[in-house]
Amino acid sequence: MSQNKFKLxxxxxxxxxxxxxxxxxxxxxxxxxxxxxxxxxxxxFGSFVSAKAIPQMADTAEVLAHLDLNNxxxxxxxxxxxxxxxxxxxxxxxxxxxxxxxxxxxTFQQRNTNSSIAQSLSTVEEMLxxxxxxxxxxxxxxxxxxxxxxxxxWNYEIVEQWADVLVGKGxxxxxxxxxxxxxxxxxxxxxxxxxxxxxxxxxxxxxxxxTPAERLEKIDAAYHSGVKRIDSALKxxxxxxxxxxxxxxxxxxxEVIGFLNTKGENLNLNMDKWNEAMAFSGKIFG
Length: 286
What we know:
Layout: E1 7-10, H1 12-16, H2 25-36, E2 42-48, H3 60-65, E3 75-80, H4 83-90, E4 97-103, H5 106-113, H6 117-133, E5 137-143, H7 156-169, E6 173-178, H8 185-198, E7 203-208, H9 215-224, E8 229-232, H10 253-262, H11 271-285
Parallel strand pairs: 1-2, 1-8, 2-3, 3-4, 4-5, 5-6, 6-7, 7-8
Helix pairs in contact: 2-11, 4-6, 8-9
């Protein structure tokens, strides 16, 4: 098989975390094991965060123990929100990536991680150090990267400034995250090529939330901006429970796959297993 130049990141954690009813551990694991067989670059499978804040993810360590990684080439990513989470996740040899949501909105950083931007920058530094010691890679999400609903100052220069700070600290994977779905094709095409050009040794990704009607135009804008790392979730499920009550869902993976196929991109995915996962998802999401 030829190497796929796109790194598709499937995000069942993001899809499940806001569900009201707790999904049994074995059911989560069965779903994730199907997704592991599809051939995505990365699976955002769980998070080591406060069980009080995100009850759905309280069993991440137990879920991990149920995953069949023997023949999986897919790497595992776990989200962390503070140093305690970093230390817990770093203990698991099976996890490849630790992801941290670094918001450039002070209001949302407090809402999401109960810490300031300054405190979160310190957490990122600690995470980078622990990743180096434990053979992990850090993924930092520039949360609220396309603006915010809180009135906090936002512009392209602020995004670039924080990207510069984080890359300067040693971050090698930076994903621009639209937490509340307010990105537009114009914003995507304005900022992503600049980041990709300026930080050529850094992997720049995108994590978009969107209404169904706007998904394809955003995927198209990201593609033409040169992004190679794309986060999405099956059927566009999910959203951020810390951002709003009306959840704006993720970009739908099937639409990303369909779009890239029309561009002649070779994704090397097992579509039989993908279709199985699509069918199985009803047991999770109803």
